[in-house]
Each structure stands twice: as C-alpha cells, then as structure tokens.
Amino acid sequence: MKINFSTPSGFPEFLPGEKRLEQHLMDTIRRVYESYGFTPIETPAVERLEVLQAKGNQGDNIIYGLQPLLPPTRQSERDEAGRGDTGSEARALKFDQTVPLAAYIARHANDLQFPFARYQMDSVFRGERAKDGRYRQFRQCDIDVVGRKELSLLYDAQMPAIIAEIFSQIQIGDFLIRINNRKVLTGFFSSLGVTPDRIKACINIIDTLEKVGVDKVLAGLAAQGLSPAQSQQVIDFINIQGNVDRVLGALDEFATKLPDADRFKLGIAELTTVINGVRNLGVPENCYCIDLSIARGLDYYTGTVYETTLIGHEALGSICSGGRYEELVGTFIGESMPGVGISIGLTRLIYRLLKANILQPLAATPTQVMVLNLQEDLMPVYLQVSQQLRQAGLKVVTAFDKRPLKKQFAFADKQGITFCVVIGEEEAANKRCQLKNMIDGEQVEVSIDDLANELKQRLG
C-alpha cells in the first residue's frame, strides 16, 4: 500500500539553510532577552483543556484536542484509556505560551522569585485554516514578566526597547512599534454609553480595521447598536495621528469632554508613563508611535498593548505583539498577579521574510572546512588533521568516501563550505597541505602544524 508521506497541511518543515537561519535568529533573540534578565523555561506541549479554556483564555483560537489511539490488538482497553481523557482530564495542545505560563506560575508559585521574568521558545498549535504564511504548528519566542499583587509600568516600557533591539540586530529594515492601552479604548466606549457587555465586541471590531476597512468596521459597530454619530466618533477617535506628544495631548482634550471618563483617564495616565519610559530607555522616536486602533484580540489583555510592523511591508502583518494582563494568573490561584509580555511568531516571520527576499537562507551546513580524501591509505592523516582543527574550535567535515577530486570540490561548494584541505602522498610526507578557498579559488600551501591558525585568520 502506498503511504502518503507529505507533511500534514499547516505543519511546516525547513530545509537545512532555513533551519540554520531560524537558529541564528533564535540565538540573537535569546541574547537580547537574557541581556534584560529573562530566564528560560519550557512548558509541556500538552495542557489540560480546562486550563486553556479558563475564563475566555481561548479567544478565537481553535484548539487541538488529544485522545489515545489504541492499536488493533488492544481495543479491549478502549474504555479504560478513554476515561482518563474525558471531563476534567481532557487534554489539548497549547495554542500560545502565555496561558501555559500562568499555569506554570500557579504550579510553582512557592519556588519562584517575583517579579518573575522568563523567556520561552517552544512550538504552539492552532487549528486554524492553513494558508500562505499561516501554520497550525509554529515556534513562538516569548517573554513575560509577572509580579505579585503589583507590577511597575516600567516593565511595559521595557518591552518596546527589547523589540527595537532585536529587530535592529537582525537587520530586516525599518519597523514601527505601535502602542496603545485597552483602558483608553474601554473607557472611551463606556463614555459613549456603550454597555459593558458590548464593549468587548466593539473593541474586537476596531481591531480588524486594517484587514477589513472603515466601511465594514462601521457596519460592525452599527450591528452592536451604535448610532451613526457614535460610530463616526469611534472612527475619528482611532484615527488620531501624529507624534506621541500630539496624540497624548489630543487624548487629554478628549478626557475633558467625555462624561464618566475615569477609566479613560487612567488609561491615558498609564500610556503616558509607558511612553516616558520608552523615551528614557533610548528607543529612537521613529521606531514607535501611539496607535489607538490597536487592541489585540485576546480577552486577557487589560492595559498596554503592542503590535510591530515592518515599514514598506505592512502586508506581512504584525511581526511582534503582546500586552499587559491583570487576571490571567489569578484565574488559577485566586491572587492578583499582573503580567506583561510580547511574542514573536518566529516560524511565520521567517516564512514572510524569506518570501519577501528580506532575509536569505544561510549555508546548508555550519561546516567551515572540509578535509578531502585523495588516498584511502592516508585516512589516518585526514582523521588526525580533522580532529586537530576541531580542537582548535573549527567546524570540520572529513570526506570518508574516495571520489574524484572534482566531485569533492563540487560537494563543498554546494554546501557552502569555505575551505578545502587537500593532502596527497607528497604533502603528507612533508607535513604540509594545500588550502583552497572555495569562494575566490585561491590555493596556498600551508604547514599542517600552522593550518588551524591560518584558517582562523582567513575566516576572520
């Protein structure tokens, strides 16, 4: 029987050069995260379903549930196996890193120091429709800081500084970190007279503005019972633009005119604190702005929210997003534990950047040097030289199979290996070798004793 061995739809796999690019980006992201004091953790791919769905954590995400599949010889165990995966024991694959983090903190609260700052680079799973650049399994690179009872807004301000540092280092072009505060949005809708049960839906509608356009947003607001005048007020409000000082000034002016604006004013005060912190952290002013249309779709966000776009490539969507939450961890342990975090959907980001030719795959192998095989009886020499170079810190592959020299050079060239070491009978007798640069074709004779230093100098 013929077996379909293609990958399931929405589950990607990288070629070696693409995988090496992913690892390079992860190394860069990790260095920045650790420079701000974040520590690594890893949570299981599988969580209890009740954890993932607690108090609206799921949002609009489609969760992959799990159940055991017994082999034909063990069908009699079906009922016994099934009992462990029903009701409160139902399990599913995690769809993000933040909800599992909340459960992790609840499990280990007595063993952690707060504020607890962690980073995590795991795969998550979403049962959404697989399409261009959208996957059902993808790697997220997250950071979060969680406090006990309180958490300084300066942690919110630190997030844009971290985003700016990462994207500056990976050199993908100009980017814009768009910042907002959900209290500003909820306070604004409340002041318009929108009832609390409809505010969430209204916020979700304006969060789709970039995707669907103004007309569909107006129609959506009308469906929530807003009058044409109220809907136009919303559009005028979220379209306030300019530098951060102008937007904050416009918000202060709104606050003087809106009735019952306490929550709105609190959002403005928090947003002002965050923007001042971002400035003090030295983030270039052309890298961030206040965007009142940013809301983030997940219900657990309560304060600061972020989305980052690549200038000139806005169609790629958000390349980094996140925000502050107040009740997520408390859902599990009944204690106030506010947090703030950001997430880079790395798999999606790499796909988009490769497709747009903003990034290119790395060489298929990390190997720097290939020791060629000219004579089988010289294999002891080739092995000794290869090991000598590795002990000097170089990445080396040895050609174990004797093939025509031309084919060995072609293999090295296709793999992106920079140098080839050629040792024949005469070179071995004199403890020398030929060193060929595969980039420019230059070939020099070098003493085997000096080979490691010569390669290090030439590799820079």
TrEMBL record:
The protein's enzyme class: ligase
Binding site for L-histidine: D96, Q97, T98, R126, Q140, D144, R296, Y300, Y301
Main localization category: cytoplasm
UniProt biased composition (Basic and acidic residues): 75-89
Domain called Aminoacyl-transfer RNA synthetases class-II family profile: residue spans: 20-366
Tree of life domain: Bacteria
Pfam families: HGTP_anticodon, tRNA-synt_His
GO molecular-function term, one example from the UniProt record: histidine-tRNA ligase activity
Cited InterPro entries: aa-tRNA-synth_II, aa-tRNA-synth_II/BPL/LPL, Anticodon-bd, Anticodon-bd_dom_sf, His-tRNA-ligase, HisRS-like_core, HisRS/HisZ, HisRS_anticodon
GO (cellular component) term, any one: cytoplasm
Gene3D superfamilies to which the protein is assigned, alphabetical: Anticodon-binding domain, Bira Bifunctional Protein, Domain 2
Location of this chain's protein in the cell: Cytoplasm
Keywords: Aminoacyl-tRNA synthetase, ATP-binding, Cytoplasm, Ligase, Nucleotide-binding, Protein biosynthesis
EC number: 6.1.1.21
GO BP, sorted A to Z: histidyl-tRNA aminoacylation
Start and end residues of each stretch annotated as Disordered: 68-89
Reactions performed catalytically: tRNA(His) + L-histidine + ATP = L-histidyl-tRNA(His) + AMP + diphosphate + H(+)
PROSITE patterns: AA_TRNA_LIGASE_II (PS50862)
Family: Belongs to the class-II aminoacyl-tRNA synthetase family.
Assembly mode: Homodimer.
Protein name listed in UniProt: Histidine--tRNA ligase
Organism: Chamaesiphon polymorphus CCALA 037
This protein's encoding gene: hisS
